[in-house]
Amino acid sequence: MEELMAKMQEWLAEYGLKVVGAVIILVIGVIVAKIIRSLLRRILQKGHADEMLVSFISSLCYFGILAFVIIAALGKLGVETGSFVAVLAAAGLAIGFALQGTLSNFAAGFMLIVFKPFKVGDFIEGGGVTGVVEGISIFTTELKTPDNKKIIVPNSKLSGDNITNYTAKEIRRVDLVIGVSYNDNLDKVRKVLEDILASDNRILKDPAPTIGVLALADSSINFAVRPWVKTANYWDVFFATQETIKKRFDAEGICIPFPQQDVHLHKAE
Question: Does the domain made of 2-98 have the CATH classification 3.10.20.880?
């Protein structure tokens, strides 16, 4: 009996602390895995991902963490875990190669959801396309073009390119180039342009509009006309201002040379 007790004490001295350490690793590991799973679910649900996809990805992450926690606990007990790690690494590498494109889109979608360079309803340009954002999922972003076409863009293509968000700011500047004849009085032209901008309530007083001679072109003197407007009014003001300028110039006897130098147009929203 004494010999058995001695062996038990010897075993406890050798393995007791290891068992306690392994249990602590398991408990903490399970808690951390649950926290990460819950956080991931909230992020995916906030990004309006499909519930089945949310469940799959969060569960995959949870059990992946548990696998490493169990290996760590076994290692604490003195079990040789090199073969387990090698098998998991090989399996992960094979899965990574097989799902390279999908994982790239997933990572890009995760970053888009976290950093929010745009939101649903924004008018953006990115990945070679332009349109209004109608949906952001974990793998793709759905856009509606100005001519009402639906475009589904892989998130990796969006995140790997410059993104221009035309509606991110509350106000935008309308850039117009208006050409007049060399025979016209520049002070009169400026006064007419100032009156046109001042008479439109949609044009902001602050920041103040800019009117100035932009270039002495071959067949015209080009004025830069740059009023600021609320983003929602951008295109209404863009089109209406040019029409009003033409009518007022006709009434004032100001000549717009033909052909006029090309006017810089933004992409239509």
Answer: no
